[in-house]
Design goal:
TIM Barrel; alpha/beta; Enolase-like, domain 1; homodimer; 2 domains; five-stranded parallel β-sheet; 18 helices; 431 residues; four-stranded mixed β-sheet
Chain lengths: 431, 431
């Protein structure tokens, strides 16, 4: 019997604040970090996963993952990989851990990291990338991945089953298209607040030349700056390229409506995270106030219950799930099903470290087996830190290429784990 | 200059699961625990605070508090106690820590513990209990405690100021009444799911004999059991005593409506936590479905943004703030102001360990200086673990007595910190 013999946890941090990569209205100096977990097994592949953070506190995130280790060590790998709902369900319903959320914040992200590591392990054992493992499941199997508690007023298992069955006949065609064309991406690379205008303009032109049809700019720190930067970007890319803007939660409702009103002439496609990610009713009010400019949020939506309400309330036009914020693949399947039910396109959040690598799997599963093809699904891409991953995200003609390597692509190269180990790796200790 | 010289963190756990105290539909076996923090100073009193958890993971909660220590060590005590908003604001807006919530879960509870320890310290230095320290502040000072971000669509600083000024002339009378009569409490002691009928009946009778006018029963595990237990309790207390029921988040919306419908004949006063604490719209739907039975929630409301929405949506009849879930006294002041604006009575959550001790201060401040007197404000009381506190909650004729000891009453006796230290204190190591 193959067993989980250890749960290794690594505190990995990249000193990204030095280059102002990732700077926005609420996060001036992130050090992209991972609370990284490896499920070591007695035989065969390991499972890799992580929670993404931006620096300080990553050690607390690591401690939370360590707290979950006793639930995994000694377990039969065949059993936990054979029943994809079991680890997620066990960890979420440990009543003592549950108190620390429930289903939110550090403990929930820790559960997500472990659940994703189990998916990585299962996919490696199955010899498939996660997107394909998911897309090959029957509708019943997919419905069985979800924790349906708290969802039935918006989506029942039977409705989800219907929706998946309707998508089933088109799976093969969509998979062919996906393998041929990839999945449309947009890029945040030109848009960080810390860049000067010349850098932003150059990066915007380059993005279009690379085939991207959408870019994104950070806004919300200073209105005059935002207008100037948007003018620069709009001039650089022309009228056909979509420009999204991202306020990173910095406004109250009325501020959002008035600020975005001042950006209207630059034709922003969506406004991302205009206010608190917890504020369902606030997003609805903002959406009413800025239409037809779209409202997007979700990267900080803590769990499926918040997503459910964003959809029920008609608060968003675009749902931006994150691979490492909620309870792993299982909860993201619930989120994809909810979005499909409400007809809201899912444009996943990525960037940071390793998020592009993981999130493409979820978007590709959505394309093939859940919502189906839509030109409104674009997946975020930021060109940082991919070199440290074993199976890095690949972009061709502005689109994510479908990965073929078995697993969830969360695995970092051993030399990266070593070099960026906090606080004593060479990147931090200067040695 | 008096400085903070150290931030000590203690992992303290009480083996309450052995007696099934605290057992409910979602939490069968809690070990009431505290991630306990002491701000040690170079001179004069220390500041004590804690986050409350129910066992496993308390070490992660402790790690989160430790992560905040560098922000406190070396600080001028006079300065941090002189500007009550500063520590709260600094910690909440540390952008790297913020990513771990934002403003929710383990990191936010850690901030709450530290902020409450600062209040304890400040109140000791002022020679006043926290309720009196707050109740002696001017309306302007009180408004200055709040982080107003995300609130302006529901409550502005000016509205809060008006509300506090209207309450000002009555402060002295209400303080006199409070000192004479205390603040009405209700008791959860008879209601735990793990008790047999005879125990529950005896405890219900005793509660009435002690002067309580309201008791609370846990429900949601089994409908037949709930009907039988409610019948026992109703018979024991008679028709005049209010019986609240508490489902501890176990239902979906439709289940809540139908289950509560089956309890109607026993005249429940409120239904507490019928579903996910994150589900604002769900609580609204349940409230519509069970009226005139009231809906109560809030002990797991993660921050002021969720509370704002519960009030905006008309989702609750009773708001149950918790002293140790959100960002400390400062955020609870925001929550009290929001509730007062919407005319919803605040009936704080207590029990666990030390929550009764702290929360009475917030309720008494609400009574004297914010919402004023209302017969609908009852504060939870559960008769566990008070013996381990330096300034324990005192109940007389079913009411909390106003404490006179300077501070926030969060301080445990040193022998309790020693005996219940996890995992090596005598209560756990058996030595």
């Amino acid at each position: 019997m193959t067993k989980v013999v250890a749960v290794d946890v690594h505190d990995v941090r990249f000193p990204t604040s030095l280059g102002l990569h990732g700077s926005d209205a609420m996060n001036p100096d992130p050090d992209y970090s991972a609370a990284y977990v490896v499920l070591r097994t007695s035989d065969g592949p390991e499972g890799h996963g992580f929670a993404f953070t931006i620096g300080r506190g990553n050690e607390v995130q690591c401690a939370a993952i360590r707290a979950l280790a006793p639930a995994l060590v000694g377990r039969d790998v065949e059993a936990i990989c054979g029943d994809f709902g079991s680890v997620y369900h066990e960890l979420v319903y440990d009543s003592q851990f549950r108190w620390l959320g429930p289903e939110k914040g550090i403990m929930h992200m820790a559960i997500g990291a472990v659940v994703n590591a189990v998916w990585d392990l299962a996919a490696k054992r199955a010899g498939k990338p996660v997107w394909k493992l998911l897309a090959d499941m029957t509708p019943d199997e997919i419905v069985g991945l979800v924790d349906w508690r708290y969802l039935s007023d918006a989506l029942t298992p039977d409705e989800a089953l219907d929706l998946l069955k309707k998508a089933e006949p088109g799976r093969a065609d969509r998979e062919r298209r996906l393998r041929a064309e990839g999945l449309a991406a947009y890029t945040t690379t030109p848009g960080w607040l810390g860049y000067d205008d010349a850098t932003a303009e150059r990066l915007a032109r380059e993005a279009v030349a690379q085939g991207f049809r959408q870019i994104k700019l950070k806004v919300g720190h200073n209105l005059d700056d935002d207008r100037r930067r948007l003018a620069v970007a709009r001039k650089a890319v022309g009228p056909e390229i979509r420009i999204a803007v991202d306020a990173n939660q910095c406004w109250d409702v009325a501020d959002a409506v008035s600020w975005v009103g001042q950006l209207r002439e630059f034709d922003p496609w969506w406004v991302e995270e205009p206010t608190s990610p917890d504020d369902v009713l606030g997003h609805r009010a903002i959406r009413d106030g800025i239409a037809p400019i779209k409202v997007a949020t979700g990267e900080h939506a803590q769990n499926r219950v918040v997503v459910k309400q964003l959809l029920q309330a008609g608060a968003i036009d675009i749902l931006q799930l994150d691979a490492a914020r909620v309870g792993g693949v299982n909860e993201n399947v619930a989120i994809l099903l909810l979005a499909a039910k409400f007809g809201v396109p899912v444009c996943p959040h990525a960037g940071g470290v390793g998020l592009c690598e993981m999130v493409r799997h979820l978007a590709m599963f959505d394309e093939v087996a859940v919502a189906g093809h839509t030109p409104d699904r674009v997946v975020e891409f930021a060109d940082h830190l991919h070199e440290y991953f074993v199976d890095p995200a690949v972009i061709r003609n502005g689109a994510y290429v479908a990965p073929d390597v078995p697993g969830f692509s969360a695995q970092m190269r051993p030399e990266a784990l070593e070099r960026f180990r906090f606080p004593d790796g060479p990147a931090w200790s200067g040695s």
